[in-house]
Amino acid sequence: MAGISTVSSAPVNAQVATKKAFVESELQKTDWRHSAKFQSSLRTWLIRIIIWIVLIVVMFPVVYVVMTSFKGDGKGLNSQTLFPREYTLDLYRQLLRPGSNFLRWVQNSLIMGVTAGALQVIFSTFGGYAFSRMKFAGRKHGILFLLIIQMLPINMQAVAYYKMLGAVGLTNTRMGIILIFGLGGSALSVWLMKNFIDSIPRDLDEASYLDGGTQWTTFWRVIFPLVQPMLVAQFIFGFIGVYNEYVLTSILIFDDRLYPLGVGVRTFSTAVSTSWTLFCAAAVLGSVPILIIFFAAQRFLVEGLTRGAVKG
Amino acid sequence: MQQAHQSVAGSGFVEPPPQEKRFTWPTAYWYLLPVALSALVFTIGPFFYTFYISFTNYHRVFRARDYDWVGLENYRRALSSGGELFPVLGWTFAFMFISTALNVFGGLILALLLNNKELHERNIYRTLLIIPWALPGILTIQVWSGLFGLSGPFNLILENMGFERVRWLMEEQPARAALLIANFWLSYPFFMTVGLAALQAIPRDLYEVADLDGAGSSQIFRDITWPFLIASVTPLLITQLAFQFNNAGLIILLTNGNPQAYPGARYGVTDTLASFSYKLINGQGNGDMGYAAAYGVFTFLIIATFTLLSSKVTNAFKEAN
Questions:
Q1: What's the pLDDT band for A307 if we cut at 50, 70, 90?
Q2: Are residues A178 and A229 in the same domain?
Q3: A149 in contact with B at a CB cutoff of 8 Å?
Q4: In this structure, what DSSP letter does residue A33 have?
Q5: How many domains are contained in chain A?
Q6: Pair (A128, A51) in one structural domain
Q7: To 10 degrees, what angle do helices B45-54 and A158-167 make?
Q8: What pLDDT is attached to residue A31?
Q9: Considering the domain boundaries, does residue A288 fall inside one?
């Protein structure tokens, strides 16, 4: 910040510089190569070319996987060309054949992701409302406590989860994963929800009470409809959290028919190259919905996160 | 963005105004009950249970039921000369710092390149460059492990250009490089987005004043643009370091910690503390849960120290301001 003050407190230098700039610009009028416009468009083109190179490198894995997924069964990994000689949908047909493992994994992902996401949203809405609008003993320590337990690494708990779920017969079940992801990670979402509700004007609550509303109707009719952007954001985060998780899921589930998609397709990607093309098709099918959700819900996600984080 | 994260980290919260006193305390606890119960069962309980298991010789295959209390035996093994803790920690810290530095600076540089008004089509570039962030990492990491395969596309390209194949995932240095490259691809879009938001939030007047005062473009960059960019990512550094410290998924799915450190070793040269703990639980021929729990406790101690230190540093900054 110190630099700014040195810049602005140099009026003498400024005069000299403007004069110099004027003289220079007059001189440059004679030579188009030195004109400001040409210089800046040269710079822009240089930046453009750098970005093109970056784009080619960054997009290569994506293009490669999409192209491989159309190559059909066979020499995917060893294929010498990026683009297939013949485009075929054979691999997609193979994946989407009724009763295939892939469809089972899609189903598992949906069941686990949607339920865990919904649980997380419900719990954090109640908790966040209490922390935002009510006074109770232990409120201050409760918030600090939430912030601390949110920092515990989830893979530290893996051994304990394995043993606890085993004790109640929930290892190797979808229910076990739903409970752990739906209820185990709620500290951060309570915190974000609390801040989001803080940003809703209290006058609205007051108006509701003046109209004779009770605690519950105020929560249900006034606050709940207003937190919907945050609900959507948290539901998506919850869903993707389950969809994208490998470490805990692969410890707690060992029947490949119960795997979610991401863990399931690992059985393709570690096998020899014949399954590699199949993996690519599965990766495309598994990525497209998430890509669509990401770009469609970008606004919700940004609003949920920024309004949830800044105090209103 | 900058403000957002500072207030999360600062935890300074607002007391509700006095009119809220109309509620008696039991109502609040009803609303809190679900969260409190789930935190107790799924976070606090397992936390203490991990400590307990770390003092036993519980093994998921050999001693699943009749395991014994062994005191500090697991900790002694981890810390002894034959233990894996110290060799694994070396690469863990290297990976954490190098990855964070690469991802943050790479993202910021791209943000600077894109923040050019004369680049009229920059929104297209931005959308394309964000794609790695929008794709599910669990799938893209597996794609990267195929790209780095011995006869994968990278080696085919190298061969066509007249170079030798690289044994990417089978030798120490290439495997480590592969992890850093794939991790960069996964993480730069986030910092690029944060950087772009920060660049757009810099007050225009600053530039105008600097321009009037005759500051050169390099001086404007050094004294205005760069400080603002750095201020926007500083609050995110701790989170990013902690994330990379715990980033077991990347390592398990890309290299699985390989290549082995020495014949017969249980850890590989690309194993971090997090991925090694996973392998102790779920790796081939493992299942040594007591020992794995001790590594969980070490992870916790390191994260806790790190968090305490960083909050001290943040507070020191606040007092200085």
A1: low
A2: yes
A3: yes
A4: G
A5: 2
A6: no
A7: 100
A8: 63
A9: yes
Range scoring the smallest mean pLDDT among A48-57, A295-304, B53-62, B245-254? A295-304
Give the best residue of B23, B109, B139 to mutate against chain A (max A CB count within 10 A). Answer: B139
Q: Does the pLDDT of residue A7 top 90, yes or no? A: no
Residues A82 and A228 in one domain: no
Domain co-membership, A139 together with A281: yes
The pLDDT score that the predictor gives to residue B263 is: 86
Q: Which residue has the higher pLDDT, A305 or B122?
A: B122
Contact (CB<8Å) B210/A4:
yes
First to last CA, chain B: 20
Model pLDDT, residue B293? 93
B58 near B289, Cβ under 8 Å?
yes
Domains of chain B (ranges; CATH) run: 87-197+235-321 (1.10.3720.10)
- CB nearest to A134's CB, from B27, B137, B152: B27
pLDDT bracket for residue B27 (50, 70, 90): confident
Task: Say yes or no: A86 and A178 in one domain.
Answer: no
B28, B149, B220 member nearest A77 (Cβ): B149
**Mean per-residue pLDDT over chain A, rounded:** 83
State residue B6's pLDDT score: 34
Answer yes or no: are the C-beta atoms of A113 and A260 closer than 8 Å. yes
Q: Which residues contact B37 (CB under 8 A, 6 or more apart)?
A: none
Number of CB pairs < 8 Å for A and B? Answer: 287
Whether A124 and chain B come into contact, CB under 8 Å, resolves to yes
To the nearest whole Å, the CA of A160 is away from the closest chain B CA by 5
Q: Which residues from chain B sit within 8 angstroms of residue A59, using beta carbons?
A: 128, 131
Residues A151 and A225 in one domain: yes
Closest Cα in chain A to B306 = A151
Q: What is the pLDDT of residues A8-35, one digit of tens each?
A: 445 556 666 676 776 666 665 556 666 7
φ and ψ at residue B69, rounded to 5 degrees: -75, 125
User: Is there a contact between B190 and B133 (Cβ–Cβ < 8 Å)?
Assistant: yes
Q: Lowest-confidence range among A18-27, B188-197, B256-265?
A: A18-27
Helix and strand numbers, DSSP H then E, in chain A? 18, 0
In three-state secondary structure terms, B281 is: helix
Asked if residue A160 and residue A64 are part of one domain, the reply reads no
Q: With 60 as the cut, is the pLDDT of residue B146 above it?
A: yes
What's the CATH code of the domain at A214? 1.10.3720.10
CB contact under 8 A, B23 and A215: yes
Cβ-based contacts of B246 with chain A (< 8 Å):
153-155
Q: Which of residues 247-266 of A touch B (CB under 8 A)?
A: 247, 250-251, 262-263, 265-266
pLDDT digit string, tens, across residues A254-288: 998 999 999 999 988 876 656 888 999 999 999 99
Mutate which of A5, A6, A7 to disrupt the B interface (most B C-beta within 10 Å)? A7
Residue of B nearest to A284 (CA): B139
**Token pair for A213:** 């509303």
Chain A nearest-CA residue for B138: A244
Percent of chain A surpassing pLDDT 70 = 82
Q: How many other C-beta atoms are found inside a 10 Å radius of the C-beta of residue A54?
A: 18
Q: Which chain A residues are within 8 Å of B29, Cβ to Cβ? A: 136
CA distance B229 to B240: 16
Q: Among A65, A94, A123, which residue terminates a domain?
A: A94
- Prior bond of B259 cis (ω within 30°): yes
Rounded to the nearest 5°, which phi and psi values hold at A184? Answer: -80, -25
Q: What is the ipTM of this complex?
A: 0.84
Q: Give the domain range for residue A122.
A: 98-309
Residue A264 lies in a domain: yes
Tell if the CB–CB gap between A183 and B118 is shorter than 8 Å: no
The string of pLDDT tens digits covering residues B289-316 is: 999 999 999 998 998 888 788 777 766 6
Closest to B4 (Cβ–Cβ): which among A13, A41, A310? Answer: A310
Same domain, A178 and A245: yes
